[in-house]
Amino acid sequence: xxxxxxxxxxxxxxxxxxxxxxxxxxxxxxxxxxxxxxxxxxxxxxxxxxxxxxxxxxxxxxxxxxxxxxxxxxxxxxxxxxxxxxxxxxxxxxxxxxxxxxxxxxxxxxxxxxxxxxxxxxxxxxxxxxxxxxxxxxxxxxxxxxxxxxxxxxxxxxxxxxxxxxxxxxxxxxxxxxxxxxxxxxxxxxxxxxxxxxxxxxxxxxxxxxxxxxxxxxxxxxxxxxxxxxxxxxxxxxxxxxxxxxxxxxxxxxxx
Length: 256
Ligand code: ZN
Ligand code: FE
Fold this sequence. Notes:
The protein is built from nine helices and 14 strands. By secondary structure, it is α/β, with parallel strands linked by helices. It has one domain: Ribonuclease Z/Hydroxyacylglutathione hydrolase-like (Metallo-beta-lactamase, Chain A, 4-Layer Sandwich). It has a six-stranded mixed β-sheet with strand order 1-2-3-4-5-6, with helices on one face. A six-stranded mixed β-sheet has the order 7-8-9-10-13-14. The protein is globular and about 55 Å long. It starts with a strand and ends with a helix. The model has no long low-confidence stretch (mean pLDDT 98). The structure holds zinc ion and fe (iii) ion.
């Protein structure tokens, strides 16, 4: 089975919706359709028929297109069991350790609470694709709205365990603002400096910075490095517990 062909669909002001398509089987999944219109346009342009809708969490900018797309295409809606009360009409609900089957492509489900209590991520190993919603961003992570700093750090550790080759398909184009913040806490990281420069060039050309490669995030994303003594020292917390370091970095970003 060939890997998914994955298309990035910009939506709303800075959301990314993804189409994952298999030409052999005709299966097409959409991940986090914030709105239906650009998704329908992208499908129509390619002659694809939507078969599955995957949701990472309940926020409207990830689910707003569910109803219309499910109705029009009869697509199967899959999302987090613990957000059943907040996402209408899910056909299949999943928990940590479950595997979703999208036309034979197997997606491992990780529960990644923090941004929302029931947030999940999907890891399709056969396509090197990590759909992580608003948990992990390029050079950043989601705001901790519903969970605790400890939960969000645990979620970072879960995603960190995915193979480094993973392409990170996150929910938003927040990369440049994340980059400015990352440099403020980790100014001497030469790998980070180089990546920021690459991202600036991409954005000047009007290109998306997504997907990024997980291995690059491990070297440069401060939220994945809360247990790195170098980062702890750089923010004036040498020897501190990783949860405390993570919480401090997240709080600084909230106020940046
Ligand atoms: Zn969100
Ligand atoms: Fe979002």
